[in-house]
Amino acid sequence: MDSKGERLLAAATAPVAAPLPQALRGRWRLSFDPQRLRLREEAMEILEKAEVGSFSPSGCLEEYQARPEIFRSFALRQDLHCLVEASPGFLEVYEQLLLTVLLPWLKELKSATQKRAQFWYQYPPTLRVQPGRSREFKRPHRDAEYGHQIGELNCWMPLTDYNLTQTTLWVESEPDRGDYEPLDISYGQIGIFHGTLCRHHVPQNSSDFTRVSMDFRIGLGEYFDPSWQLDGVKHVHGRREIWL
């Protein structure tokens, strides 16, 4: 059965943008130096202030004792979003990741001959917490349901150790293929994919450890329409424009 977002999308006008080339609709893995870009530590500072759980005596992020409803509750996720938005240290490292790792790589991928490239990146990014031994999951979906455009790429990165949580995002290789495969990545790596059309989901976390991840989207220049919005969606991500 179609979701509300799919029904809204069927009735909406399309963004005014050039079609995204097939070469930019793939799936990639990118690495960064977690000792230089300390997103995990910055996220721990946010969770220390958040009323979504508490740290165990070990102080380990994977042993963060999250409230069971955090993965599903819109109110709790909004509280966490507000804390992320008010965390200059976290946001500074996030933008360093974009400026020194992701966007230069995307510029090269988009066009090796282009002198300048325009991007629109989500600001702030989304921080997600999935408690261990939980039945909560995220159903298969494509981000077009939530008002995202074909000219955007998804970036997903774990902040916890995949060897411990054994829980990750599953993504299909092409739209409607249904051949879901796990993003087999850990902290220090970023999974990049075309999540607007390729469905993805998160299964239950059956481990004893909490999974924490960060995700965001990047609009690619002429393939993205910053003035377009899907009428009827509850939440629209903020974004910033940059030229490289």
Any descriptors?
dioxygenase, alpha+beta, seven-stranded antiparallel beta sheet, four-stranded antiparallel beta sheet, globular, Jelly Rolls, 244 residues, 24% helix
Q: Give the averaged pLDDT, no decimals.
A: 93
Number of domains: 1
| Rg result | 18 Å
The appropriate CATH architecture is Sandwich
Q: How many DSSP E strands?
A: 13
Quickly give the structural class.
Answer: alpha+beta
What is the CATH class name?
Mainly Beta
Proportion of helical residues: 10-25%
CATH topology: Jelly Rolls
- SSE order: HEHEEHHEEEEHEEEEEE
Keywords: Dioxygenase, Oxidoreductase
Protein name: Fe2OG dioxygenase domain-containing protein
GO molecular function, one term: dioxygenase activity
Organism: Cladocopium goreaui
Structural overview:
GO terms for molecular function: dioxygenase activity. It comes from Cladocopium goreaui. Keywords: Dioxygenase, Oxidoreductase. With 244 residues, this protein is an alpha+beta fold. The protein has one domain (38-243): Jelly Rolls (Sandwich), CATH 2.60.120. Helices cover 24% and strands 23% of the residues. The strands form 3 sheets. Strands 1, 4, 5, 7, 10, 12 and 13 form a 7-stranded antiparallel beta sheet that branches. A 4-stranded antiparallel beta sheet has the order 6-11-8-9, with no helix packed on it. α2 runs antiparallel to α4 (88-110). The longest helix is centred in the middle third of the chain and has 23 residues, at 88-110.
